[in-house]
Task: structure prediction
Amino acid sequence: MVVGAGPAGASLALLLARRGLPVDLIDACGHGGRPFRGEGLMPSGLAALAAMGLQPLPPAVAQRPLTAWSFFLDGQRLFEAAEPMGSPVPCTLIDQDSLLQELLAQAGRQPGFQFHEGQAATDLLRQDGRIAGVRLADGTALEADLVVACDGRESLLRRRAELTLESAPSPLDVLWFRLEPPGAEDLVHWLAGRFVTVVGAAGSYALFPSARGGVQLGWAMEPGRAAPSPTPASPGEWLALWARDAPQLLARLLRALAAASVQGPVRLPVRVGLCPRWQRPGLLLLGDAAHPMSPLRAQGINMALRDALVAAGQLAPALLEGGPAAIDAAAAAICAERLPEIRRIQQLQQEEARRADLLRRRHLLRSLLARSARWSGPLLERRWRASQRELRNGVAAIAPDL
Ligand SMILES: Cc1cc2nc3c(=O)[nH]c(=O)nc-3n(C[C@H](O)[C@H](O)[C@H](O)COP(=O)(O)OP(=O)(O)OC[C@H]3O[C@@H](n4cnc5c(N)ncnc54)[C@H](O)[C@@H]3O)c2cc1C
Result:
């Protein structure tokens, strides 16, 4: 049984169902119901999809390869790093809802798969010292040889199983906006497929062309702070705030954008942490439930897919032929195999966050770098590129799903 149909749960359910295992997949919300889902897939996540036999993705899954990463300080271009930066494929924006729909549609074609959509798991069932299933919000008890909790960063099942989450300080909270077409078309044209980061006196934000059309924009906030001060009271004031630190042409496009094209903000609190132990007898945590990821450099979906791939390979033989001891041993082996990559990626994200924070807070440093961008830019680009290798490609080798 898999609880949570995000990237970790939906892909694991598909992989297990493809191997002929009966799979109950439970999700609290109906799909398409979330206001925001991340879109960035790194080569590491695309490799996981390929290893699952899911590449190329069908045209129904909206996707858009990134062309470059551009950084602007105080309106001045610092550097631009073109994709694919030495990786076999470029980082690609993918409409997560349509990706999940595709995973669920493929799983739905397997005889043993059952999707309990719109049903929240509210507790764990226990028998003879093992977790033996879950209770649903409507009171139904669903039994299973193994519960795989993929219920996200606030995981209820993690708390019910009393598995400790070692929380790291959150680097930021995000205020999320969508700039909708047709108004945002000129902006999409200016972006030309780039992921653009703007840092200035007013704060910092990133924008990129959404795989679904239009533009996504995330405003970074120091955690715990209510909003930028003074807080913009209308879309027009947000547009003016973003324009303040933007390079000239972007500033002009933002000021010209109709307020009606701006959707948001949606506040997305960021939680970061790691469980040193992912399993109890009869239970395994995967994805954000085991290791809530920061949004920095688009890692969480990728790590969730890679967790699922490793989990399917280890669990399938144990579930098909082994008893409880074999299942629990497989769960422990999955945790041992995945922990080193997750630790390293979270460490690299923290380093990235520290660099971003330094630029946000240190006005003098920012202004010095902006004024000397012609020579400091190439130097910083070289260092930044080197720091991205593992964040892009992952740390561990992954094997195809057989
Ligand atoms: C602002 C922001 C931007 C991000 N952008 C990116 C990005 O571009 N690229 C990237 O790789 N990562 C990104 N991430 C991280 C990424 O979203 C997560 O790491 C990823 O979604 C984790 O996948 P998951 O399947 O483990 O959990 P989730 O995607 O959180 O899925 C959990 C599922 O469990 C269900 N659920 C929860 N509780 C219950 C319950 N009790 N019963 C039943 N179902 C339940 C939920 O409905 C949900 O469908 C971003 C994160 C944030 C906060």
In short: The longest strand covers residues 76-82. Residues 324-361 form the longest helix (38 residues). DSSP finds eleven helices and 21 strands in the chain. The chain has two domains: 2-168+272-393, 173-268.
